[in-house]
Amino acid sequence: LTFTGDVTPGCMPGQFNNPKAYVGTVGEDYEYPFANLRSVFEADDFTFINLEVVLGVGVGRQADKQFVFSGPEEYVQIMTSSSVEAVTLANNHSEDFGQGGYDNTKRVLDENGVAYVEKKNTLLYTTESGLTIGIYADVFSFNESHIQQGIAQLREQGAELVICAFHWGTEGSYRATADQKKFAHAAIDAGADVVYGHHPHVLQPIEEYNGGIIYYSLGNFSFGGNIYPADYDTAIIQQEVILAADGTVTLGERTIIPCSLSSMEKRNNYQPTPYEKGTEEYDRVLSKLNGTYTGSNLPVH
Length: 301
Prior knowledge:
Helices cover 22% and strands 28% of the residues. By secondary structure, it is α/β, with parallel strands linked by helices. Strands 1, 2, 5, 6, 13, 14, 15 and 16 form an eight-stranded mixed β-sheet that branches. It is globular and about 55 Å long.
């Protein structure tokens, strides 16, 4: 199973004609954003991302907020051309253009065979290798009983492995909050195998807990929300899942691929690229994920 940080194939509407913004950079080259790691996505059984954009330009009513993101409907091909099987829509940008924009995004995903999970809802997905994955997703306002019910429902429906996709935490913070830890632990205790976190826009530690694994935040990935990010570090996490002949499922080895958000320096070109092993950047990513990073949190603007 492959997990990444936030994917925003689009930008602020006022930036559509800016050649340095996402739409101006990517244009109609749908294979461009994931060109440097498509082989990673194609070689796995399941790639899961947090999709922070409204697919469709000019649909719905723009929300009255500082940052709203949208991209052409055709940008769904960024996912389909790079073997992204599923996305979570449980985040604070999927409704940037109201119910109309949200419904349009779901329609586009449905028509192109990309599975999605919504907030306080579940998704059941069976991979080509035969593993039935259950996903429960939520954003910001968490309730332990809802989490427990969602996980129990997925198990009853036949999920052999359960992922909780949680949008949470403090933007710019390299450390998980007490609430993140509380609800992550509650999810694992209730039977989840993996907790996949996003929202802080920076990496936060990975925690092994009670037989499960928690990714508190995988930061940004191909993120059209910022041309000049303060932190370019990101990572791909690949989690081996072992399905035994008797039907039992266990977590196997975990592979971390430290990356930059961009394939160029000093500007985001929205094309994540692996760091070279042994470099300062590579080791810095690992320190953020193992909890030893001592840098200051980023200011939130």
